[in-house]
Write a structure and sequence with these properties.
The protein is of the alpha/beta class. 40% of the residues lie in helices and 11% in strands. The strands form 3 sheets. It has a 5-stranded parallel beta sheet with strand order 1-2-3-4-5, covered by helices on one side. It has a two-stranded antiparallel ribbon with strand order 6-9.
Length: 197
């Protein structure tokens, strides 16, 4: 935890106070460790603190959420509307993070977002997956009123830009939603076959 806190302080020092800093703990802590972490990170004015402990039992995350002045987020490994309801009803986090490839698909993510909206919660799809996943989720994000941000990975592999046509488009940090049919992209089958070998 000490190394993580020191790293977060260093990043905040580079970013300054005008840029958002988000920290993902990857569900690695216990309740006591999470409470200690929240106290350590308070001065950094985080945009959010994500996945401090595992999703189960949700009352552990709820205790951390109540102790934190920053927004908390999580739920990337939860499957299905019913499980998300139990998680949200326990006040586990401020922002739900359904993952389209894990939560049950696009329709289930849409249902989770509608439920969250009715409960006064925001949704931020978890999406470090692929350009195809990003294309799918970007369409959902454009249609949902309670979207916070769309978390996605970018540029982690040298062939990533060639995986879809047209390649992912960004403007000032925003992923552009295609107006083409379907997800608006075509998969580069030849590249997929080559990479599968």
């Amino acid at each position: 935890m000490r190394l993580g806190v020191e790293s977060a302080r260093a990043v905040r020092g580079v970013l300054g106070s005008s840029r958002d800093l988000l920290i993902d703990v990857h569900s690695l802590m216990t309740l006591d460790e999470g409470l200690a972490l929240v106290a350590e990170l308070e001065p950094l004015k985080l945009y959010w603190l994500e996945e401090v402990t595992p999703a189960e039992p949700p009352d552990v995350l709820a205790s951390i959420r109540r102790a934190a002045s920053m927004t908390t987020a999580g739920g990337e490994g939860i499957y299905g509307l019913e499980a998300f309801y139990r998680y949200a009803a326990a006040d586990a986090v401020d922002v739900l993070m359904p993952d389209v490839k894990w939560c049950g698909g696009m329709l289930e993510l849409r249902k989770v977002a509608a439920m969250a909206e009715a409960m006064g919660l925001r949704v931020s799809p978890h999406g470090p997956a692929s350009p195809v996943g990003n294309a799918a989720v970007s369409h959902l994000c454009a249609a949902l009123p309670n979207i916070d941000i769309n978390e996605f990975a970018f540029g982690e592999a040298p062939w990533r830009a060639d995986l879809i046509d047209p390649p992912e488009a960004f403007d000032a940090g925003h992923l552009t939603v295609s107006d083409r049919p379907g997800f608006g992209v075509r998969l580069n089958d030849a590249l997929v076959r080559r990479l599968a070998k």
